[in-house]
Write a structure and sequence with these properties.
With 259 residues, the protein is α/β, with parallel strands linked by helices. 37% of the residues lie in helices and 24% in strands.
């Protein structure tokens, strides 16, 4: 017996999330239905805003090109970000130096490190710097440069030159989206370049991202997924994504889970 539309819909969306596109003939063979049935399915999903039809198949809809403000983003998936921040901070060992890029998840790492006098934090993020000034017991280094008022972070050549002076243990990177096809992406080119530089200056790069970022592509690439060693996320991350990342030798750490 052939699968119902709802069952096909779930599989199609799961494939789009991990692969970025689907082909009509592949889906027809997978579900043992006609290509006309698949095209009708794709029509319905396009009307729902879940995908965009292209010749021979469909691709995932692209995210909005304009990033919400820092304050608005900090209120989105707040509980998940706090849990991710706590789990990520637990990875920081005694005496380590870490880089934190400008993000509403990386600022939660800073909040968890406030009592750690044995840690050095380097960041280009003004919100993270201001958080540290509220009583961080370790050492804070601000990667200064031209301040981008829109994203509340330093960017540009001076910030890059300063980061070149350091070699650190870990870089914690945030992202606007994560896609198997397009890698780790960000809304803002200058922020993406700074995050990429941080990855280059670290022995280990760790991505911190809540489940809403998976299957999303934003404006510009930070790096291919293979260039990170671990993703810290929340229990909302699908099993399909965990399996896909493990195939790329990327460890997935789920916040709130031991071991």
């Amino acid at each position: 017996m052939s699968l119902t539309y709802e069952e096909r819909r779930r599989t199609i969306l799961a494939r789009l999330s991990t692969e970025g596109k689907v082909q009509v003939h592949d889906l027809a063979g997978l579900f043992n239905v006609s290509t006309e049935t698949i095209r009708r399915d794709l029509d319905r999903l396009e009307k729902e805003g879940r995908l965009r039809k292209v010749y021979g198949g469909a691709v995932q809809t692209r995210s909005e090109r304009i990033e919400p403000t820092f304050i608005k983003r900090s209120q989105m998936h707040q509980h998940e970000k706090q849990a991710i921040g706590k789990t990520a901070a637990s990875l920081v060992k005694e005496g380590e130096t870490v880089l934190l890029d400008n993000g509403t998840t990386t600022i939660e790492i800073m909040r968890e490190l406030m009592e750690r006098s044995d840690v050095t934090v380097i960041t280009n993020s003004l919100p993270i710097l201001l958080c540290a000034l509220e009583g961080f017991k370790g050492k804070i280094i601000f990667a200064g440069g031209e301040v981008n008022m829109g994203c509340q972070a330093s960017t540009g050549a001076i910030a890059h030159q300063l980061l070149d002076q350091f070699k650190v243990n870990k870089a914690f990177i945030s992202a606007g989206g994560i896609s198997l096809a397009d890698g780790i992406t960000e809304y803002n080119l200058e922020e993406a370049l700074l995050s990429r530089k941080m990855m280059q200056r670290a022995e280990e790069s760790i991505l911190v991202a809540d489940h809403s970022k998976f299957g999303v592509t934003t404006f510009t690439q930070i790096a291919p997924i293979e260039q990170i060693s671990m993703i810290v996320t929340d229990p909302g991350c699908s099993q399909e994504w965990i399996e896909a990342l493990n195939k790329l030798d990327v460890e997935v750490l789920i916040s709130g889970k031991s071991g």
